[in-house]
Task: structure prediction
Amino acid sequence: NMNRTEVFKIPGRASMYFGDLFHTLVASPWKRLFFYFALTHISSWVVFGLLYYGNPWKNQEASHGGIETDLWSSIWFSIQTMTTVGYGRQAPEGVFARCLASVQLLWGLVVDSAWLGVIYTRFSRATKRASTFLIANNAVVAQRNGLPTLLIRVMDIRKHQLVDCSIRLFAAIWEETVEGEMLCRLHQLRLQGGAGEADGYYIRPLLNLPWTVAHQMSASSPLFQCTADTMQMEAIEVFVVLEGIDPISSNSMQMRWSFTAENIIWDAVYEDVMKRDSDQVRLDLSKFDQWRRQSRDELEAGRLFLQHKRRQAAEAHDNYRHDERTKD
Result:
């Protein structure tokens, strides 16, 4: 499973992450983020508290209502200054203490502004938007019009839909060159149904209803003549990539899901979750992940339809050749 790729022994990894500190913090877990938040503030309080405590004129200033001379009072004043609380019991009196307090105020603005940007970006990220998307636990390969078709069901349960939403499908196939080198090639799969580009490699679905992404495994497909056994042996993996813009935050987002041979069911279709009445459509999402095997009658109907289409194509070809000979 390519979603479980393990990366190790990266030279200079720490320096690379530190060089991109903003994205490193935004992508950090909440526990680590709060630890760094507390660490920067507490260390700033302590450092400036030690500087106040080391003030050579602190004894003279304390006698005139300045900062008290003990260490904990200096750290407490540092906390009040950086948080701009100012309880009024202590105030810097000398030139050194006032200059140091001014520097700490500026430093506090920098620290708070930086953390405000990190936390806001973390809250406003659209990545958690994926939690309101439903995607079937299993993909299915069904016979449609006599041809095997890969089907994946997806739906957005929120009322406000993504702007400029699109879905693409990829197949990761391992191939060996004549020299014996193993390559993982990513093939984009042509999709059926929905509005999209003329080449059909992505669709723009309406996701307020369950949408079934469909790829016909015809002769032009990278998955042509694939079976459950070949997908298992060749470790073929199918990726679904959904992209769009969240209308609330205007943030671009991308979601990815993958299906391996273990969760692709053959000769099956999804259970119908939509019931169409005269004035509305009812959805029973308890059946969203459910599937059933195609009956023999359904498979036979598809086989007969495909034979009929091939017969029609052969007759059309013969008629064309007959007309060409007649012209000559």
Observations:
- The longest strand covers residues 163-176.
- The chain has eight helices and 13 strands.
- The first helix runs from residue 13 to 19.
